[in-house]
Amino acid sequence: MASTSCTALKVLAASVAVANRSGTIIRKILSSGNLGIVEKENKNDLQTEADRAVQRCIVSSLTHQFPQLTIIGEEDNLNEMATADKEYLETSLAEEVLKESCPAEYTEAKESELVVWVDPLDGTAEFTQGLLDHVTVLIGLAWQGKAIAGVVYQPYFNYQTPGAELGRTLWGMIGLGTFGLGNTEPPTEGNIITTTRSHSNPTVVDSVKACEPTEVVRVGGAGHKVLLLLDGLVHAYVFGSPGCKKWDTCAPEVLLRAKGGRLTDMHGNDLKYHKDVQHKNTGGVLATLKADHDWYLARIPESVKQALPETQVKSATK
Ligand SMILES: Nc1ncnc2c1ncn2[C@@H]1O[C@H](COP(=O)(O)O)[C@@H](O)[C@H]1OP(=O)(O)O
Ligand SMILES: [Mg+2]
Ligand SMILES: [Mg+2]
Ligand SMILES: [Mg+2]
């Protein structure tokens, strides 16, 4: 099989398997009733036992199978202990990924050149408030500074539909496509914009308003908002704030771009994912699937652009 010699596809197959395992961990912790909530930088920046346990699971599992990867996870101080964490070791590879052929441009990508951006639980604020379908697990793979593959796992997809299967896995690779989706056609009428519900500020409000929405959908999570685009429920995701980090955007960006969409900062620049890049997406986030991305870019006010400088890369050669 062509895929067996493709390291990027193998890492993606491991990421899909460990994302699925993460769902079991998150659901078990929520049903235990003890979320172990900790405030990080401020009251809008929370961490739960699910964030910690899933990061340990993902980092220990990927490190065990691919020791030369660079893995950058949201939750600090967990990576070192994760290598010794046997409880959470997931060593399977997702067959549905392995059966695909590696796009020619990635056959040369070496394990030591891949950077994996991990958000163990995106939408933590909403998770603590019981808005469970806002939660996703995000694992994105970057090579030569570009997002090339990723998985978005939604552990509580369908949780309000009795009898339906709980959770879904979406994964993709640039050049291969996005898998696990249904309808992706956007609404035929209006200009529906999704944005933050828990991290708003004046530049967020100004950028949404400037894009002339007919409706604003305020929900949690970067992964969740990109899923709204991929499910054909909104036309654009507009986040005029530096709050999102590389682990919030890497995997969702792949799923969008592999379907022909775009995810940029507010200046229209592509985001960079080198291992030594600034973690914050300081230029904000603008994402579209079928809508005219440049139309939205042209409407972002100069005052917002000035408040959101482009992200700096220490060395763009790695
Ligand atoms: N000001 C912020 N402080 C901390 N995290 C933020 C901030 N803004 C955005 N994020 C992260 O980006 C995600 C998307 O933002 P929002 O839901 O506000 O649109 C959030 O779920 C959160 O990720 P996480 O939940 O993984 O900490
Ligand atoms: Mg967080
Ligand atoms: Mg996040
Ligand atoms: Mg998170």
UniProtKB/TrEMBL annotation:
One of its GO terms (biological process) is phosphatidylinositol phosphate biosynthetic process. GO terms for molecular function: 3'(2'),5'-bisphosphate nucleotidase activity; inositol-1,4-bisphosphate 1-phosphatase activity; metal ion binding. Pfam families: Inositol_P. Its cofactor is Mg(2+). Keywords: Hydrolase, Lithium, Magnesium, Metal-binding. It catalyses: 1D-myo-inositol 1,4-bisphosphate + H2O = 1D-myo-inositol 4-phosphate + phosphate; 1D-myo-inositol 1,3,4-trisphosphate + H2O = 1D-myo-inositol 3,4-bisphosphate + phosphate; adenosine 2',5'-bisphosphate + H2O = AMP + phosphate; 3'-phosphoadenylyl sulfate + H2O = adenosine 5'-phosphosulfate + phosphate. Its EC number is 3.1.3.57, 3.1.3.7. Mg(2+) binds at E74, D119, L121, D122, D248. It comes from the Eukaryota. Belongs to the inositol monophosphatase superfamily. This is 3'(2'),5'-bisphosphate nucleotidase 1.
